[in-house]
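General statements about sequence and structure are easier to judge against a single worked case. When preparing material for the folding task, we compiled for one chain both its residues and its backbone structure tokens. The amino acid sequence and the backbone structure tokens for this protein are reproduced below:
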Amino acid sequence: MRRAPGSVRDSIVGYLAAAECASLGEIHQAVALKLGGVAPSSIRSYINLNTPALFERTARGHYRLRDGHGEGAGIEAQQQTYYLGKSTLIHADCFGWLRDCAPRSVQAVVTDPPYGLLEYTEDEQEKLRRGMGGGVWRVPPSFDGHRRSPLPRFTVLDEGAHAALHDFFLEFGRLVLRATVPGANVIVASNPLLAHLVAGAMTQAGLELRGNIVRLVMTMRGGDRPKNAHLEFPDVSVMPRSMFEPWVVLRHPLDGRVQDNLRKWKTGGFRRISADKPFGDVIKSNPTPVGEKRIAPHPSLKPQAFLRRLVYASLPMGDGIVLDPFAGSGSTLAAANAVGYESIGVERDLTYVTMARSVVPKLAALSVQQIDPI
């Protein structure tokens, strides 16, 4: 059943504004009574994702609204702004920021969002910081005596989590549509298991699907033998070893023809690599270099060589603002600084905001090897 974007959120907030505190079961019952069939896992996923930004856990399985979040309130954090070269870093929840920003004020979006959702809940982030596996995090096998950092495994997401994922990106897509100019490129990192859900929700929001950019990179996902039966089935891999990372490419619908849009809004296509070489949708890449990880120890840090190629192409005339609504450690902002673009990053986690303030200038100053175009 199709629901208006934000209807589950509004129902939860409205109920807790009146009830003050309630169990997950009580919240689900109230929302289901108002909206009809809603999976309990959808309620659980939404609340976990927005704790502690909007909700506060009072006891096991019991929640209330945080102070200052009455009925109809958004989830905006107290905004703080920092200026890092040509980049502006904002400590805020991006959904609230996108609702309040000037319409049609952004010329491109390049972002790596929490597309698994669960990996950025408070509990899962704590597991990550302790280097623990379990739940959504998988600890890869050691290599050359070195223990590797946990990786998210999205096969653990159930139907309710997929529904929450759809609602998340549907609302995100609508807000991005409001914030961007006609013809703006919207480039969203994803993975082979969830890219179709991200693309479907954001096109439903009104953006145009323009394909994918394939980052050719060997990852640690897939290729494993059956768990607890690897000796019995030594010649079987449960899933193919992942050798690429898809970035979903969308566009704010054009205002007239491409040439009209370029003249009026300065966007509507991709900046060429050179006069005789167009920007391509397959980019050879490597895992993020150890040196960059030391500067910015973020769990999903992308390499500057790749990000600079992507950010450079996102503004066809080199004119405008690149937005990263899920700025993390600020690697996209650093890439924008390196190629000379203005950018805005929004990040709600104070740990990553603090990190970004330190690392953006350092990452931007790195000399990286150019990626040979395919």
In short: The chain has twelve helices and 14 strands. The first helix runs from residue 7 to 19. The domain at 80-117+157-365 is CATH 3.40.50.150 (Rossmann fold). The CA atoms of residues 216 and 244 lie 4 Å apart.
